[in-house]
Amino acid sequence: MTNADPQELAKFSDLAHKWWDPESEFRPLHQINPLRLDWIDQLASIKGKTVVDVGCGGGILAESMARRGAEVLGIDLADRPLKVAMLHAMEAGVANVSYRAVAAEALAAEQPGHFDVVTCMEMLEHVPDPSAVVRACAQMAKPGGWVFFSTLNRNPKSYLFAILGAEYVLKLLPKGTHEFSRFIRPAELSRWIREAGLDHREFKGMGYNPLTRIYSLNQDTSVNYLVACRKPAA
Question: How confident is the model at residue 192 (pLDDT cuts 50, 70, 90)?
Fold first, then answer.
């Protein structure tokens, strides 16, 4: 069975036409994308590298990595966002990014050890078995390759900030975007990373200032956080 939740796929498919509107429900993705892109590029130096973006949605990160000179494949199981991503790349003239409707586990079986860089951002909390996605990401990476994840911590503060604050008070996201029970504690993700044979390299937190409306990377992983890993070279 495919490791996907039909309700989650439908949720993002229904909003696909708004994906590249920076003032839409996807405004937070547009705002955080430069932060995560720079962080990935600083560590992995993506120019000239082969990259797969797992759970790429409408292609915001995938296309931006291609603009930095990477050869990028974006994969997702939601058809409408993929079509939006393809159309946007074509209209923007970004030729070094392509998209496929394929599960991470299937691509890992098809192309093990193929990619220099694997990214899986804001996706793990939307699938039934996130540990399987972590394993697939590790399998797709070349020896010595980089693997990046981002997700949401599970604690009272993250419920307050990521659901009540972001979805109901500040209305940064549509109501129902996240399900608290699916949030992932750093210790849980760390265990899956180790079990997949990856080495931790860096944890980063991501914060939001509601007064300035500015996102920033920091050391506070209590709500949103990112993880950089490497696959051992030998």
Answer: very high
Q: Which of the four CATH numbers 3.30.70.100, 2.70.98.60, 3.40.50.150, 3.40.50.2000 does domain 6-230 have?
A: 3.40.50.150
**74 assigned ligand-binding residue:** no
How much is the mean pLDDT over the chain? 94
Domain ranges across the chain: 6-230
Confidence band of 1 (pLDDT split at 50, 70, 90): low
DSSP string, the chain: --S--HHHHHHHHHTGGGTT-TTSTTHHHHHHHHHHHHHHHHHH--TT-EEEEET-TTSHHHHHHHHTT-EEEEEES-HHHHHHHHHHHHHHT--SEEEEE--HHHHHHHSTT-EEEEEEES-GGGSS-HHHHHHHHHHHEEEEEEEEEEEE--SHHHIIIIIIIIIIIS--S-TTS--GGG---HHHHHHHHHHTT-EEEEEEEEEEETTTTEEEEES--SSEEEEEEE----
121 appears as a binding residue in the annotation = yes
What tens digit of pLDDT does each residue of 203-212 get? 999 998 888 8
